[in-house]
Write a structure and sequence with these properties.
The protein is α+β, with helices and mostly antiparallel strands. The protein folds into 2 domains: 145 residues, Glutaredoxin; 38 residues, no CATH class. 30% of the residues lie in helices and 19% in strands. The protein has a 5-stranded mixed sheet with strand order 5-4-3-6-7. Strands 8-10-9 form a 3-stranded antiparallel sheet, with no helix packed on it. Strands 1-2 form a two-stranded antiparallel ribbon. A hairpin with a 2-residue loop joins β9 and β10. The protein is globular. The N and C termini lie far apart (71 Å).
Length: 241
């Protein structure tokens, strides 16, 4: 009898430990690291992210739950901006821990709504089923102090080489600024193309900063505010596709 009790206790603690380890594998990929790859079902069929999007810029958005007001407003904003992101060579993917069945229903409903006086829009980007929390753990989207089963509002901007270039996290009750996310993509593309940096509150078309390594460079397009702060006017401010 004692032997059975001991075995039961050992099994209980073993299972508990394995479960705990599985829940603790969540890690946020850092800027400059490879974007974690995962395969999952979506409203656009099975996809492998980020591989299936090729040498495009990608943005992965995580959501707490379908059929919730803040999430719905964000998807509708993104749907209205699809053409803008397409022009930037950006592919969008949405992920949450809800099921594919729920994603399909939510998408169908959203495509019937008139939002901010605009006509309904077809949603072309995929909504990914991560009901098993695999991708959520790979991207560190489950924050235990907020929820152990629902993603926070995460944003991962990934470049054509599948490197993580920018990360945002928002609390569940605050909607994301999609214009700021778009601005960040344009800033990254501008910096990569021209080997420059962008100053605070930079907007597309504004002057850019000459990095310290190139500070000695003097052209008719550069001007200094100080010996440690030099700006440049871009001849071609267009962004990289």
């Amino acid at each position: 009898m004692k032997t059975r009790i001991i075995i039961a206790i050992v099994l209980f603690f073993s299972v508990t430990q394995l479960w705990s380890q599985g829940k603790s594998t969540s890690r946020i990929p850092l800027i400059g690291e490879d974007a974690p790859s995962f395969t999952a079902e979506s409203t656009n069929g099975q996809i492998t992210f980020p591989d299936n999007f090729g040498s495009k810029w990608k943005i992965l958005f995580s959501h707490p739950a379908d059929f919730t007001p803040v999430c719905s407003s964000e998807i509708l904003e993104l749907a209205q901006m699809q053409n803008e992101f397409d022009k930037l060579g950006v592919k969008i993917a949405i992920i949450s821990t809800d099921t594919l069945y729920k994603h399909v229903s939510w998408k169908a409903s959203l495509e019937t709504l008139k939002y901010k006086g605009k006509e309904p829009v077809k949603i072309n980007f995929p909504l990914i089923d991560d009901n098993g929390w695999s991708a959520s753990n790979q991207y560190g989207m489950l924050h235990a102090s907020s929820s152990t089963s629902k993603d926070v509002r995460g944003v991962f901007i990934i470049d054509p080489k599948n490197k993580v270039r920018a990360i945002y996290f928002y609390p569940m009750e605050i909607g994301r600024d999609m214009d700021e996310i778009r601005r960040t993509v344009i800033a990254l593309q501008t910096a990569d193309k021209n080997k420059v940096s962008t100053p605070a509150n930079w907007e597309p078309g504004d002057d850019v900063i000459v990095p310290l390594a190139r500070m000695a460079q003097v052209t008719e397009n550069t001007y200094s505010v100080s010996w440690y702060l030099k700006f440049m006017k871009l001849d071609d401010p267009t962004v990289q596709k």
